[in-house]
Amino acid sequence: MSRLFLLDTTGILALFAGEPRTMTMLRWAEQGTSVVATTATAVVAASRIGAITSRQWDAVLLRGVFVIPFDETAAFGVVDDRSGRQLDVAHTMWEARRLDALVVTRQPQPYRVCGLSVVALPA
């Protein structure tokens, strides 16, 4: 069974910056040996922070990165998170739990506190 890597907002920014570990994950996704995904809310947050265009996203999506939608199941799961976390972080946590994914992030602490498995990238 292939491993699921779930990029949060900071993981996406690392990918677009060419961070070596994220590029390796992308290569694994292309080869079909792992799955790389992110959440729709993290896409929006990272795109706003990093000025990532839809054309740049097309290039990444064509290489095998999946975007998990923010549907009603996720919405109600996030509603139950009363921690005050930003929407993109809460959505990533929800999906990481649901899918048993490794969260790829430059800010591992919120995920570790919740008992999630993390790939910590350099800040």
What does this structure look like?
The structure is a single chain. The chain has one domain: 5'-nuclease (Rossmann fold). A 5-stranded parallel β-sheet has the order 3-2-1-4-5. With 123 residues, it is an alpha/beta fold. The chain contains 7 helices and 5 strands; from the N terminus they run βααβααβααβαβ. The longest helix is centred in the last third of the chain and has 13 residues, at 87-99.
Q: Layout of SSEs?
A:
Layout: E1 3-7, H1 9-16, H2 20-31, E2 34-39, H3 40-50, H4 54-61, E3 65-68, H5 72-79, H6 87-99, E4 102-105, H7 109-113, E5 118-120
Parallel strand pairs: 1-2, 1-4, 2-3, 4-5
Helix pairs in contact: 1-3, 3-6, 5-6
Key structural traits:
globular, 5 strands, 18% strand, Rossmann fold, 123 residues, alpha/beta
**Tally of individual helices:** 7
| Cα-to-Cα separation, first versus last residue | 30 Å
CATH architecture name:
3-Layer(aba) Sandwich
The CATH topology turns out to be Rossmann fold
Domain count, please report it.
1
Give the amount of beta strand, in percent. Answer: 15-25%
| Lateral arrangement of strands in the main beta sheet | 3-2-1-4-5
State the gist of this model.
By secondary structure, the protein is an alpha/beta fold. It contains seven helices and five strands, in the order E-H-H-E-H-H-E-H-H-E-H-E. Helix 7 links the parallel strand 4 (102-105) and strand 5 (118-120).
